Amino acid sequence: MKLAIVIDGYYFLEKFGLITVIFALSLVVAMYSTLAERKIAGFLQDRVGPNRAGWGGMLQPLADGVKMFLKEEIIPAESSKFLFIVGPSLAILTACIGSAVIPWGDTIVLFGRTVDLQVTDINVGVLYIFGVVSLGVYGIMIGGWASNNKYSLMGAIRAASQNISYEIAMGLSIIALLMMTGSLSLRDITNQQHGFWHEGWFSWNFFSQPLGFLIFLVCAFAETNRTPFDLPECETELVGGYHTEYSSMKLGFYLFSEYINMFVSSAVMSTLYFGGYNYPGMDWVMEHAGPTWGPLVGVAALLGKIFFFIFFFMWVRWTVPRFRYDQLMNLGWKVLIPLAIANIVATGLWMTVKATYF
Amino acid sequence: MAVFYLVAFLSIFFSLLVIFSKNPVHSVIYLIITFFTFTIHYVLLNAQFLAIVNFIVYMGAIMVLFLYVLMLLDLNVNSEPVKSSLMKIAGIVAGMCLLVTLAGALKGSGFLPAGAHEEVVQRPNLGLVKNLGQVLFHDFLLPFEVSSLLLLSAMVGAVLLAKREPREI
Hints:
The complex is a heterodimer of chains A (about 350) and B (about 170). Chain A has helices spanning about 10-45, 60-70, 80-95, 125-145, 150-180, 185-190, 210-225, 235-240, 250-275, 280-315, 325-355, and strands at about 110, 115, 195-200, 200. By secondary structure, chain A is mainly alpha-helical. In chain A, strands 1-2 form a two-stranded antiparallel ribbon. In chain A, helix 1 (about 10-45) packs across helix 10 (about 280-315) and helix 5 (about 150-180) runs antiparallel to helix 7 (about 210-225). The longest helix of chain A has about 35 residues, at about 10-45. The termini of chain A are far apart. Chain B has helices at about 1-20, 25-45, 50-75, 85-110, 115-120, 130-140, 140-160. Chain B contains seven helices and no strands. The longest helix of chain B is centred in the middle third of the chain and has 26 residues, at about 50-75. Chain B has a domain at about 1-75: Four Helix Bundle (Hemerythrin (Met), subunit A) (Up-down Bundle), CATH 1.20.120.1200. Chain B has about 170 residues and is mainly α. The chains are: A mainly alpha (about 350), B mainly alpha (about 170). The interface between A and B is medium-sized, with 27 and 23 residues.
């Protein structure tokens, strides 16, 4: 087995640096998402939100972290101890590895070296994301089962069936997109959406796949267990859901992984449907800002889109009430899957007509 | 090759744990790890698409359902039925017979045709999505469609079995 890539020291250093930056970025974004969530909840409910720690509550996430770490850790006596620890570890692990295939920016020139702002461009990037998403449910299932508590088990089982159901609709909604792009690599998909306007139509995939995006968005809410689909941790029925028995930082990991998942799924949505690091007038900016600052503007554009989607997640959480479980299943199996299949057929027809008559 | 032997050892080790662990849920978790080592095997063979599909379908979907059912059943070590030693001996004999038959069949039939390894090495792009799609939808279109029909009929049958009986008047 021979690898075609010539690996020199700088290459290694560059990838290592990139991984560190992305890891730190997702953690910091997730940290401040917790603050943003509470601030937005406060705004929507006409109150102030946390504002004691630091200026406007800026140190609140740090205070929460310290609290989580210092709290007493309780492992239930009748639980299976090893799996009880594996659960939250797996949840945070799967949340963090999803960001590896997302292209964060165009190739950038740093200190005379051309650097790809993507950890790895595997040619099945979209499927990798799906694999990580499907692995994510194990953290919840194992943790819920290991707690040896009826409510936790109910939460775990709800999470499993919900994730399985919505994964199908999510995969089908992506197929229509892949038919148009003809590539599974996220880098290729992003480059195809260059700029904003191409041959008389918007170049971003959202404008050619609006229905697919809508289905993907709904499924992303379900996969990240966010309201209106947070049935696994529904506190009115299940005490705390799958993390009823968890305390201290293990609980923190579960809650934190939800925010990292939100960040990664926002990044995936921006990349697949909203052009990733592309923005209107990027050619002009690239020409004037040079090969170092030009791509960085693109990174900022991508981050802007991601922050918008994170805000959207929170906006929906504090606006829409929770679904009932049978409604959730009906929506997944009887509405989203047929819609996604219809979308595939319509896309195929349109592509054939376009290829034949235009 | 060293990586292959390490991963192969891990596959066999975890599949043995699947059989020997008392708790069915632990068994399923070991099975998940076994499937993960299979994914690494596919990656080593440069079959990226197969690797990731194995990952999504087996690890991410089928095993989740296995785990789901086992968690609902709540099988414990205590509730496990005690099998008589006659049953155990019969099981061992039957299993060994199957193993010997499989080994003999694979050894005699030339399971790996000569030059298959060279083919993989010379064409490193063999396992990529594009080539796999070409083969499936061009050379083997009919078997592919027939097998998908088979799966569809199985699904329809399962739904029919699970449906509530129409109320008899």
